[in-house]
């Protein structure tokens, strides 16, 4: 593993505070150390929370990201802070999931990207939203999804 | 997220009573905030109940809806009230599941729509019914089904 | 098994309609064929539903009954109809569970009785209520509870 | 739902005895209320039992039926009685599963039909048999199988 | 292990047919090879079936037996045939479970005995019955019960 | 169920905003409709979140409350708002769980009270904290805990 | 079911001893009663054991066989004895699984055949081996695999 | 950790062959490094196999050992070889479990000892046997049992 | 929550390296903010690893700590570093678990303390070790254990 | 099974120490005994650990390898030592998984190869990485993945 990567990610070992809202959060990346190989990366974040834009009540979700990196890899601490920035933001399930997909697509310019939000039950009904873009290259099978 | 959506859905934070029967229930929608993106939405409702049209005894089911929105998103509270309106209605498993599919298709005019009813055991036998219409666009994989 | 029991329960094989409300429902019993033995009976009913007395919205629960019969055994079809009679009745979780316990105690006069209601999530919070009376005789261990 | 269907199925609310053997059992059907829609129906019967034709010992199985109705829907009570008629009949696992498939095909004339028998362990080995006919139309995905 | 036990159980390796009814079934035993030790034996039989004495419809149950042997051990093949003899017998859940307990108590004269019947759902309600006699000696903890 | 209870809880059907912090949140109660019966109530809230007082990073927990009511029952919507008020408050796992216990004890004056916090993994280690007060009366068995 | 099949399998009800090694074991078959239908048969044997050819220590595995019968059906008791014959035989995981596949292919001449061995953990690592031959005919979907 | 223990157990890193039968197997021990502390040790062996003494067919079991060491600790490799020595030995479930208990008691002279055998299903019935001796000292709770 | 606690734990937000071995690791504590209340704290660490003192091969375990604090609370980051310090240390299962118990007892001087190590399978056998000291005060029930 | 294979793998029964780092570890192979058959081999290693290259803290993962052998089979003990050599090596999740794939590809020259790393949660987020090369031949279906 290269020394360059260590320098790029020098804030990984340091503390950082949650951004005020998603627009202020920065998604950091580092260079894909294997740009010649197509592979699939999954990040699973079961601790997502935001607010209902109508009632102001908290909503909770698990966010799954599957992507095939192009030139860039998502730095997971900045992703955690990005997700944390929704904490006091009002947003609908569908809108929020599509927004996360859009931000990751901008930041990573990946070969393939899927974002899934599994939102907790409200009024006896749960909602899941899946947004996908790009195309899976040969030799890139998405991992199975256990979340229901 | 737009202010318009908030106005459209102004009844989300207000109380509402269960319609007398499914024909009287109104399925509300709001405008898809991302009509340029194909994505999959799942609603899972494990608290569905109606009556057997022959014996008058209660039946119970879990209803799963998967759809790819076109211009409209299903407002989940109106969907909850719609499902609640079957409470004192007599309907067969097959007929009820197809009816829900038909009503959602009319209300949403979606790119793709699947309704599945998982009906509880009666006489040692359970019945599941799955009704599907439209075609999944590229980049729209249905989420896995855990219900048995 | 005695012929007398068959006569007592002559409505088991016949159809019956759901009583209008719990006060109108009759809990039937038949004579304990083994009054000299202390044993434990559990009935588990995962298909209970009633209405919230404030909002009128449907509530759902699993009801578990554990009892040590004295002179009487609960006839399960009349119990099913009794539970079905809550369908359009407004009642709180705590109140409803205690009421079921009270009605069973009156009907069965059992040596021991426990009623547990496991009520589905509302607003991200589930509520369980357990009401117990009498005392477990020697050689009567309650079966474990898997419901969560 | 139509009044005609109620008349067709007038025996649903009445008692009926188990046929002596599968050849004497009648599989009843009622008219598909939605012949213009292709949909999938699953019946799952975990309480199947018959006898080993060699040793006379009881065998147990779960039977799963998946079909796409054409003109007819399977009436589930007659299906239960049909399965019950194997109770004192000797039949091998493979033979029995294929026989059930054949009888359902005759009775339903379905667009697609699959019968699976999951037979309990004997001598440390379990046997599953799956028989399929017809072709799944567009928009008809079989539901997943959880049985192992 | 003693040669005597082999002679006593000489029918274990031979075929045997299901008795016509429980009264005609014989529960065989063999001598406890360790009468000086108190230990717990569990037999679990998930393939029990009988008939409803009112409707004639099949019922299904899992039977669990826990006992501390005195002078005798239950021969498991004769127990299997005993359970098989209920196949065409009409009996209620409570009555059947107590009857099995009574027959085992007579045949084994055990230090402690518990019989539990876990009966499948009928009309949305399952019934479990537990009958216990004798007293657990020191150093005899019953194994946990996973059945629900 | 009494009309008085409905009046007392008149805000249940109305919207309410999350208090700024736990000290500003009010835990509402209503009169126990069955003060003569000892019974156990469990509330399970899997959507608790607060902040680490050192790093400012979000923490997540499931909160379980078991209590035997005396004169008062906890109104669950005010409990939800109370839990929601920790959202932007920094507090340690042990301190937070004991604080919730103290507030509930003050508000409910219950016969028995247990609060358990199951806190999510941090640095590969999860922490659970259980605080209990009072004494379980006869006929009050706590329900089993499935959380791990 | 035909009388001929009963004669062919006359040893099913009789005792038989474990062959000394796999080469001495005979895989028996009987005629496929439905040669005109393509269907899938699965045998699952979780009680396989052999020896490590290097260390002589026992190895354990679950063996799953999926096949589409041609003219012949595998007689399951001879298959059990065949698997039992590995008990004191040294063989590697890969070699053993391929050998079982080869023997079944010779004995059954099936339309399709897959053998999977799920071998227990050794040194913190488990090994699974899957060998497949032939081609699944139309209307023959392999059952899902739950083994991990 | 002491150097003495390493010398005592010098065969742990070396290969060893399975003893011909249980009587020839030696259960090795090493000195309890903490004889002043009462603690509980569990060994779980899911790969036990022996033969049925009547039919010669293989039997399979999971063996669980719980003990409170006195002066000696059980060396786990010698325990593995001891269990392996049953491979070609005919023994009944009850007899085998009691025999393992007796051998461990002789070898370890423990403060408390429990041996449980969970034997696989034969003829649709599984058998578990639990043998316990000694008394659990204060501060020694047995770990829960998940095996069913 | 007090400012003093924040100062005491000022290294929580800072990086720290793994100690060379357990003897060099320091278990830090902070003052129990509720010394007047008896409560139970559980720490669960599924990522423990050390070396076999004989073969040098890695061992893996889950460590569970249950304690009733007296004057001190265990700081979880120092506990993580303490567990990490076993990474290149050779120690037996029994010895290691007792050692962890001893170190925690010294550092915390708790009212009650239990340490359980669930060690992964080696040679087909897993080992669990449980060490307990002190006495559970009134109102302190240990949480259930799910680990197997 | 050939004698040659036994000679090739003569170190399987002997002890070996963990290599200092992955570059020093040797992946051993033996000749595929069935080069004429295409089959799938899976190795699952749930005990992988390395260090974070930035913070020096331990990371944990489960590594799954699926391959279709060409001329060579992976010797599993050398694979275990190879994985063990990461113990004190700093490497990122993505980089480490791709590195393992590269080394296996070099050593095995397989027809098809997939390496998946399931890395434990850090900061509330887990990461999985899947790297695949070659093409699955006909009759080679990858086994399902249960890891989540
Ligand atoms: Ca929404
Ligand atoms: Ca969900
Ligand atoms: Ca129907
Ligand atoms: Ca179902
Ligand atoms: Ca619940
Ligand atoms: Ca057969
Ligand atoms: Ca099965
Ligand atoms: Ca049950
Ligand atoms: Ca803390
Ligand atoms: Ca937890
Ligand atoms: Ca091998
Ligand atoms: Ca496995
Ligand atoms: Ca036996
Ligand atoms: Ca078992
Ligand atoms: Ca374990
Ligand atoms: Ca994972």
From TrEMBL, chains A, B, C, D, E, F, G, H, I, J:
Q: What GO biological process terms does the UniProt entry carry, in alphabetical order? A: tRNA queuosine(34) biosynthetic process
One annotated Gene Ontology cellular component of this protein: cytoplasm
Source organism's superkingdom?
A: Bacteria
Q: In which pathway does it act?
A: tRNA modification; tRNA-queuosine biosynthesis
Q: Which InterPro entries match?
A: GTP-CH-I_C/QueF (IPR043133), NADPH_dep_7-cyano-7-deazaG_red (IPR050084), QueF (IPR029500), QueF_type1 (IPR016856)
Q: What is its main location?
A: cytoplasm
- The first-level EC class reads oxidoreductase
Q: Which residues bind substrate?
A: 74-76, 93-94
Q: What is its EC number?
A: 1.7.1.13
Compartment(s) of residence: Cytoplasm
Active-site residues per Swiss-Prot or TrEMBL entry:
52 (thioimide intermediate), 59 (proton donor)
Identify its protein family: Belongs to the GTP cyclohydrolase I family. QueF type 1 subfamily.
Physiological role: Catalyzes the NADPH-dependent reduction of 7-cyano-7-deazaguanine (preQ0) to 7-aminomethyl-7-deazaguanine (preQ1).
Matching HAMAP family: QueF_type1
Q: What is this protein called?
A: NADPH-dependent 7-cyano-7-deazaguanine reductase
Identify the species of origin: Thermodesulforhabdus norvegica
The taxonomy runs: Bacteria, Pseudomonadati, Thermodesulfobacteriota, Syntrophobacteria, Syntrophobacterales
């Amino acid at each position: 593993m290269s020394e360059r990567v260590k320098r790029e990610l020098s804030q990984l070992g340091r503390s950082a505070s949650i951004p005020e809202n998603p627009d202020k959060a920065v998604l950091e990346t580092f260079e894909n150390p294997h740009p010649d190989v197509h592979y699939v990366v999954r990040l699973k974040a079961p601790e997502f929370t935001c607010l209902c834009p109508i009632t102001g009540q908290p909503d909770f979700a698990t966010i799954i990201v599957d992507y095939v990196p192009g030139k860039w890899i998502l730095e997971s601490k900045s992703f955690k802070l990005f997700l944390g920035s929704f904490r006091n933001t009002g947003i609908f399930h569908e809108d929020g999931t599509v927004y996360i997909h859009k931000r990751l697509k901008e930041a990573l310019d990946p070969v393939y990207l899927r974002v899934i939000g599994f939102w907790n039950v409200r009024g006896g009904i749960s909602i899941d939203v899946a947004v996908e873009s790009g195309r899976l290259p040969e030799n890139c099978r998405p991992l199975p999804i256990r979340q229901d």
